[in-house]
Structures are given as structure tokens and as C-alpha cells.
Design a protein that fits this description.
8-stranded parallel beta sheet; 7-stranded parallel beta sheet; UDP N-Acetylglucosamine Acyltransferase, domain 1; about 260 residues; Udp N-acetylglucosamine O-acyltransferase, Domain 2; 2 domains; alpha/beta; single chain; about 20% helix
Amino acid sequence: MSIHPTAIVAEGAKIPASCTIGPFCTVGPNVTLGERCQLVSHVVLDGHLTMGDDNRVFSFACIGIAPQDLKYKDEPTELVIGNKNDIREYVTISRGTVGGGGRTRVGSNCLIMAYVHIGHDSVIGDGCILPNGSTLAGHVTVEDFAVLSANAPVHQFCTIGKYAYIGGGTTITQDVLPYSLTSVERNNHAYGINKVGLERRGFTPDEIKQLRSAYKLLLASKLNTTDALASIREKIASGEFGDKVAYLADFIAKSERGVIK
């Protein structure tokens, strides 16, 4: 184990010998790290925090800190982080609250860039990219392989669907459709599918064609959301649309805040 002499590691912290803890880091007593984690310098790990293998945390990040919630009374809530994440400078990730289920979760293989804030009780999936200045209020869900852009604030209780791409500076106050491109440059509307991102993730030409057809019904027809969803469901039942579109339909049906169209 490599622990810099200026670092402070509390008694009770579980740190494997393969980890590196750089200068002026502070690790609390209820922190558990996986193998080969690296804390670059001036990192604060606090609270009941469990982190998987091969994570890198850069300078001045504060991970597992108390939630910014006036109802929080120092209950032993937690933050759980997966494997192979890069958490860059000045990132803040709050642990959960009792009212929100007691846990904030971050998946694996995520890139969380400088100055990102992930609020209490949020759930971040695998393979997500949160660029500089993205701000997630409490209770936000970001599903697998979603990508935000710089300075994109997300309202509490919103969900960002799988493979969605959000443009820089876009304010999110409703759920973001999976597979979509959503941008303030288009008046905070979804304007099509994230074709490049889907191709990179191995979607077939037929799956992309199906999603395009479904999005035409949602965004370019004269149907309201309810009627467009009914039409999509009919095409799923007939076999014209497959499981990727079925997930889109289920996402819309389950949305409590409404979706950005």
C-alpha cells in the first residue's frame, strides 16, 4: 500500500495494499476501497462509502459527503460506487438520505469530469459521461451510456434514459427520452435519435431504423404523446418494432414528470 505521509486515513477504513493514496487526502473510518484505487491528492472520502476496483479520484474531489438536504440528521446513509470510474477534479458526490432510500449509487466505467455535482439518492448507470459543470439535483437517475454536456443542470426526480445525449447548457426539468438528442439549441426539445452514439454502441442498422420510425411518431407526427405511444405499441405487438423500441415505450409510460419532446 502506498500512502503519502501527509494523508490521513482513519482507523477502520478498509484499504487494500494495491491502492495509492496521494498527498493531503482524507479517508474516513467507514470507507471501503476496492483493489488498485488511486487517490491523486487532496481527495476527501467520507461517510459510509464503498468503492469498487480500479477507480481514480483526482484532486479536491469530495466523495461520500453529507447530503445538501436540511432534513438530513447525520443518519448512516451510504454511497456505493462501481469499478473503473474516473472522477475528476472538484467533483462532489453526496451520500443518500433516509427519505430517498438511504443510498446514492454510481455504476462502472463512468467519466465524471471536473466540477460535476451528483446529489443525494441519485443513481448513475454504467458507461455514463458527465462533463464539466453538470449538476444533478437529488433523486436523479441517469441510465446506462447516457451522455450529458457541460453545464447541464438536472432537476430533482428526473430520469435521463439510456443512450441519450444532452447538449451543453441544456436545463433538464422533465425526463429525457432514451436514445434521444436533446438540446437548448432546439428550444430544450428532443430533435431525433443519437445515431452516432448508437452506432458506436453496436446497434444494428435495423434497430436504428426502427427507433427513427418510432421517433417520427413521437416528434414529427400530429399525434399527442398518448396516441403516439398507442401507435408504437401496436407496431411492437405486430413485430414491426423490437425490444429497443419496447424499452422506449415502457420508459414513456412510466414517466412521472413527463418527457421532453
